[in-house]
Design brief:
Layout lengths: L11 E4 L2 E4 L7 E5 L3 E2 L9 E2 L1 H19 L3 E4 L9 H11 L2 E3 L1 E2 L16 H14 L10 E7 L6 H17 L3 E5 L5 H10 L7 E3 L8 H9 L3 E4 L10 H13 L6 E3 L19 H12 L4 H17 L7
Parallel strand pairs: 3-6, 6-7, 8-9, 9-10, 10-11, 11-12, 12-13
Antiparallel strand pairs: 1-2, 4-5
């Protein structure tokens, strides 16, 4: 039976190669990754994934995960000011045979490009809607999500507030969802209040990097409000141990909120690639999920967190629909 929206049209994802029906997605979805980006601010080129230099390794990793685990979709959250390259995403997607959802929006303030300078919320909203409707640059590729729209600290700065409000308004206008960057896990409640204050329903919002915040009460509150809680830096042991991540995830599940958990690795520099000795995009599937299973989580909940939840987040579908 076809999954439908309230208007009766099938739920589809906007991918870099065209529309994809959710029914076609039978394998896991990585809910927060980067395949091409440039966050270098120091000149050491560590915080980059360059299409020309690293694209082949990225493609090979995704193709291997497709073969081994059935990886179906990557939600790629490199947005404006982060070195986004939609054309490269399309090439990687085609060669790896893994669907990729591209993003738009603005990251947190240290990486804001000049197009935010002095621009009001309405102007920023128009910029995003124009890109969502018309495509990224000359590629014609339309974003399928807003993110990772960022802030740092417990409350967003003034420019971050404008960017978040614009993302929410653009999401309401276009029917897309918003994924956030909460620096080191902080500021999620303030982000949620800002986004919902613009009329965006909480189930169209994913609050990012919550596995970096050792505060199960915040996670419960976000989930109880209806937002998705992203445990999306799995494997980044220099920020947080996977043992702590597992404890936090199990607490969220035990509180009855497995239907609000999103999981991913947030590969954001070339040193994280498997070919360079890093954990790679497969760390969630190869290393972390076996620990989740060993803790007693069954396969239905694994599928919920790694496939159905991200599909529901992207489309706004209910638990009953997907």
């Amino acid at each position: 039976m076809s999954t439908t929206t309230p208007h009766g049209t099938p739920h589809t994802l906007r991918t870099v190669t065209g529309p994809l029906a959710v029914e076609a997605v039978q394998g896991p979805v990585l809910s927060h990754e980067h395949l091409v980006l440039d966050l270098d601010k120091k000149g050491d080129r560590a915080a980059v994934l360059e299409a020309g230099t690293h694209g082949a390794a990225v493609t090979a990793e995704l193709a291997a995960l497709r073969e081994e685990f059935g990886l179906s979709v990557v939600i790629e959250l490199t947005c404006r000011g982060m070195g986004r390259d939609a054309g490269a995403l399309r090439r990687i997607s085609r060669e790896a045979n893994v669907a990729v959802v591209a993003a738009t929006g603005w990251y947190y303030e240290p990486f804001h490009p000049h197009d935010l300078d002095g621009a009001g919320v309405e102007q920023l909203t128009e910029t995003l809607v124009r890109e969502i409707d018309g495509g990224i640059g000359a590629t014609g590729i339309t974003p399928g999500v807003l993110g990772e729209v960022g802030s740092h600290g417990d409350t967003p700065s003034e420019p971050e507030t404008r960017a978040l409000r614009a993302a929410a308004r653009a999401a309401v206008t276009t029917g897309l969802s918003v994924s956030t960057h909460a620096q080191l896990g902080h500021g999620g409640p303030a982000q949620l209040a800002l986004l919902t204050g613009e009329g965006l329903p909480p189930h169209r919002i994913a609050i990012g990097h919550q596995d970096l915040l050792d505060d199960p009460a915040v996670h419960r509150d976000l989930a109880a409000a209806g937002a998705y809680v992203a445990f999306d830096t799995v494997g980044k042991e220099s920020y947080q141990s996977d043992d702590v991540r597992l404890r936090l995830l199990l607490a969220l599940i035990e509180a009855g909120h497995a239907d609000r958990a999103l999981l991913s690795c947030d590969i954001s520099r070339h040193g994280y690639l498997a070919t360079e000795g890093g954990q790679g995009y497969g760390h969630l599937l190869r290393s972390f999920l076996p620990k989740v299973r060993a803790a007693g989580v069954d396969e239905d909940l694994i599928d919920l967190m790694t496939r159905r939840n991200p599909l529901r987040f992207l489309t706004g579908a209910s638990v009953e629909e997907i």
